[in-house]
Each structure stands twice: as structure tokens, then as C-alpha cells.
Design brief:
By secondary structure, the chain is α+β, with helices and mostly antiparallel strands. It folds into 2 domains: 1-31, no CATH class; 45-99, no CATH class. It has helices at 45-58, 62-81; strands at residues 6-12, 24-30, 86-88, 97-99. Helix 1 crosses helix 2 (62-81).
Length: 102
Amino acid sequence: MAQGSARATEKSDAPTDDSAAGELLTDRVAAPAPTAIRVTVNLSKRSADALDEASRITDNTKTEVINKSIQLWALVQTAQLQGGGIWVKESKEAELALVRFF
């Protein structure tokens, strides 16, 4: 049985030749829902350094940082497609600045 799959046994009212009692017991293996995928990426030095820094300052694993980054990228792209944008304030005293992604 595949790892992460569930095994279910159910009765069927359909008659079969191999069922003495007229009931069919079938084993069905449910396909596991994809919960994660594995990817390989080639990071530039700048991106690798940013990944290390983000992991260090947030105390998140690199996987967590990458997952959050992808979700944020999707949010940014959706906002830009709808005519919006992402604004950042680099410090308490700084003015809001529109972040531009190309």
C-alpha cells in the first residue's frame, strides 16, 4: 500500500460469483491528496543570501520562507493585475513607497 493512502472496505449489494453470501467486500485504496510537491531551484547568490537572511531573522526554515514568498508573490501579482500595488514603509519615520516588480 502506498504511503499516506487510506484503505477502506465497503459492502456492495451487487451480486458476484465469488461471494457466498451475495455480498461483495471490496478493498479500495484512496489516492492521497497532494499536500506537498518537491521542486529543485537554482538560486542566484543574491537570492540565496536573501533566503538565508529571511530564515535567520524570522526563525523560519528555508522551506517556510520559500512557501511564504511564493504566496506573497501571488498576492503581489494579483494586486498589480487589478491595478493595485504593494506599499512599504521601511521604517517608522519613512514615507510609504510603492514597490514595483517587473
